[in-house]
Amino acid sequence: MSRITVTVVGVTAALLLTACSSSKASGGPSTGTTVPQVTITSPATVPTTSVPASTNDLSGKWTGKYSGAFDGTFTLNWQQSGSTLTGTIDLSTAGTSNINGTVNGGTISFGKPFSTAITYTGSVSGNSMSGTYKVKAGNTSTSGSWSATKTS
């Protein structure tokens, strides 16, 4: 999509003067009247209002800790494609699992594929991220906090 900038110099005043000084019955400009010029420019780049997927590439190894209902450490290995994250999480208390997620601007969410048993949400900025996790078991749920730093 292109943005068009219209620069009009003195059009209103010139049109008013032309209309008032016209001597023709048709309402057109009188002889010797100058019609103002209109310049239309189309810039090569157009500013966007959409939020980028992320200002950083989250691909790589992240190490972190979690506390609350459960305490421990974890290692994330992410691959990022656009706003989509795939990889593995190695929890000190539960072993390694595949994990999927999304990042939109500074917001991140992830969990096990096809499961809502454990979900992580939070924010990411540069080489650090943090948030909360929720664990659902039957009709009960528990939660806590997590944080991680990119190590490679």
Count of the separate structural domains: 2
For the report, how would you describe the main beta sheet?
A: 8 strands, antiparallel, barrel
The CATH architecture of the largest domain would be Beta Barrel
Count every beta strand, where a strand is a DSSP E run of 2 or more residues. Answer: 10
User: What is the ordering of alpha helices and beta strands?
Assistant: EHEEEEEEEEE
Give me the side-by-side strand order of the main sheet: 3-4-5-6-7-8-9-10
The low-pLDDT segments are 1-26, 40-54
Assign the structural class, choosing from mainly alpha, mainly beta, alpha/beta, alpha+beta, or little secondary structure.
Answer: mainly beta
Keywords:
152 residues, mainly beta, Lipocalin, 2 domains, two-stranded antiparallel ribbon, 1 helix, 10 strands, 52% strand, globular, disordered N terminus
Description:
This protein is mainly beta and 152 residues long. It folds into two domains: 5-41, no CATH class; 60-150, Quinohemoprotein amine dehydrogenase alpha subunit, domain 2 (Lipocalin, Beta Barrel), CATH 2.40.128. The chain is 7% helix and 52% strand. It has one helix at residues 11-21; strands at residues 5-8, 38-41, 60-68, 72-81, 84-91, 95-104, 107-111, 118-125, 128-137, 140-150. The strands form two sheets. Strands 3-4-5-6-7-8-9-10 form an eight-stranded antiparallel β-barrel. A two-stranded antiparallel sheet has the order 1-2. A hairpin with a 2-residue loop joins strand 9 and strand 10 (140-150). The longest helix is centred in the N-terminal third of the chain and has 11 residues, at 11-21. It is globular and about 35 Å long.
